[in-house]
Amino acid sequence: MADVVSFRKEEQSGPLLREVNSPVLRLTLNNPPANVLSIALMEALLAALEEAAASKEIKVVVIAAAGKLFSAGHDLKEMTSHRAHADGGRAFFERTMRLAAEVMLTITRLPQAVIAEVDGLATAAGCQLVASCDLAICTDTSTFCTPGVNIGLFCSTPMVALTRAAHRKQAMEMLLTGEPIDAGTAKEFGLVNRIVPQQYLRQVIDKYASVIATKSPQALKIGKEAFYRQAEMPLAEAYDFAVGVMVENMLARDAEEGIGAFLGKRMPDWKED
Fold first, then answer.
1. pLDDT tens string 7-43
2. Which residues are registered as beta bridge partners of 138?
3. For residue 114, which of 165, 151, 69 has the smallest C-alpha distance?
4. Domain topology for 217-263
5. Does 217-263 match 6-213 at the fold level?
């Protein structure tokens, strides 16, 4: 079962706010007015995710945002300020993109489930962040876009996450037109799981998080890693890989406990790694 709930707030200033309501870690982008993914915000987000990965207390991570926008993507003013450098900004541009890629990969590789809580616009790298999360739940007024093409900059790095969340032609529609899509279209495309009225967003997120937190941390870790690995494999190779994962999972202590609890009509007692 999930841990007894404990509550504490941490780091209630700066570009990233943390709130621990054990077993859920809530990370709130706090870089007004547009929650741009500046170097400072991405470094703070990466550090928080890496800390969560090592935690036995945290079972679910929620990524939310303060204000009216989820995130407008990279900080274009910050990036443009480096064009005056001798290299025209190349080193800073590469640092920015590689840091963003590291954040997205860390979300995918995190042993815990990560849920995007979206209320407002998620654009460019902000849309990439949503697409990188395991689940995404948004309000009915949220919008999503990859508008780089409108300013001569194709959203090539957001494309990586987007094409793994949405169907290929629908992802290309977003990338080629740069036009925003509404919440209903985002759900149809596969970018979000559910759409809820704004007043119920936190309630629905908390419900999802609490349900996931009751599951075996060992099984979730095994399953999440396997999910992303098999998705990149040909069908036969994916089945071969999944068979091996399933056998090892069956031999794991939590599977033995969970099956025993099911057959014995009792609640399972999950163990930490």
1. 455 556 799 999 999 899 999 999 999 999 999 999 9
2. 118, 195
3. 165
4. Lyase 2-enoyl-coa Hydratase; Chain  A, domain 2 (1.10.12)
5. no
Whether the Cβ atoms of residue 22 and residue 7 lie closer than 8 Å to each other: yes
- For 50-87, the pLDDT digits (tens) are 999 999 999 999 999 999 999 999 999 999 999 999 99
The Cβ of residue 258 has, within 10 Å, a number of other Cβ atoms equal to 18
pTM: 0.92
Domain ranges of the chain: 6-213, 217-263
Greatest extent of the chain over all pairs of C-alpha atoms, in Å: 70
The amino acid present at 229, given as its one-letter code, is R
Whose structure tokens read 């870790």? 221
- E strands along 126-241, which residues? 135-139, 143-145, 181-182, 194-196
- Provide the CATH topology of domain 6-213: 2-enoyl-CoA Hydratase; Chain A, domain 1 (3.90.226)
